[in-house]
Amino acid sequence: MSSTIIRTDQLCYNYTKGVSTLTDIHLQVNRGDIYGFLGPNGSGKTTTLSLLLGLLKTQHGTIEILGKDLQHHRKEVLRKVGSLIESPSLYNHLTAKENLEVYREIYGASKARLQGVLNIVGLSDTGKKTVRQFSLGMRQRLSIALALLPKPELLILDEPTNGLDPAGILELRSLIRSLNKEEGITFLISSHILSEVEKMVNRIGIIYKGRMRFQGSLGELHKLQQQQSLVQLDTSDNLRAWAVLKKFQAELQDEDLVVPYTDLAQVAIINRMLIDNDLDVYNLHPRKQTLETIFINLTTE
Ligand SMILES: Nc1ncnc2c1ncn2[C@@H]1O[C@H](COP(=O)(O)OP(=O)(O)OP(=O)(O)O)[C@@H](O)[C@H]1O
Predict the structure, then answer these.
(1) Would the CB of 282 count as within 6 Å of ligand 1?
(2) From the DSSP assignment, how many helices (H) and strands (E) are in the chain?
(3) Ligand 1 touching residue 161 (CB < 6 A)
(4) Which residue numbers delimit the ABC transporter domain (predicted)?
């Protein structure tokens, strides 16, 4: 069985003629991934997810889901995909179980499956409580239970952490992790806040103004973070210091000398080299990039 669950190639989309909303989106989600699809508001996440779910018609490029071309195998493919893209219509006057019962027949799921998904999302003991009395986190988990009824292989969640309090985010994160581990479900999760998904995803795609700016493992993003960490220096002779530190890819930026570094031991070596070359160090300031600053750098002009 193919290990690629979603592959898009040269996916483009325009709502308005002449105005590109998506340009050449190449998304690759592998079986077993929890893939974080990140980008600021308006960058094109929902448009991409809508195309993947056949809610918008592909104008250019290809979408392959579970090894099949979406355009030619739409029904067959989407049967194996669950989603939470617009808030699903939950009935406020019904209990969690009654809500699931409404959808159970549509999805052809068994009563045992209904009870199973209630257990999975931790709502089996809500009894006679109606959805009106549910917290946002509970509603979100009930919506996920609905999406789980047909036993999907892939779940696509659009901004599932939106509006949740920290406890709700933690619950959702642990639910997603356990569904991934225990039920083998692959996830594609969009968010505009890196820190809210960073702790649960293994792969990341970053989109900005309709273009992919990064795609890779969380480890690769960390590598980028390390590569972009800089030590800022001021010495008695910055030009000579620059020559001494050339092999570290030192650069002169205006008056300052900046040198990329990966760990603090390297900063100590840089300092020693300057002193050994009779240069006085007036200022040495390591500026470690955070994942958040990398994300911001990738999603600004
Ligand atoms: N139905 C529509 N008609 C015209 N333009 C649209 C439509 N839906 C979205 N857009 C525009 O397409 C661009 C991408 O929007 P999209 O909703 O895909 O972004 P997003 O990353 O999901 O943002 P958000 O986090 O705000 O939902 C935006 O400029 C948006 O204004």
Answers:
(1) no
(2) 11, 15
(3) no
(4) 6-234
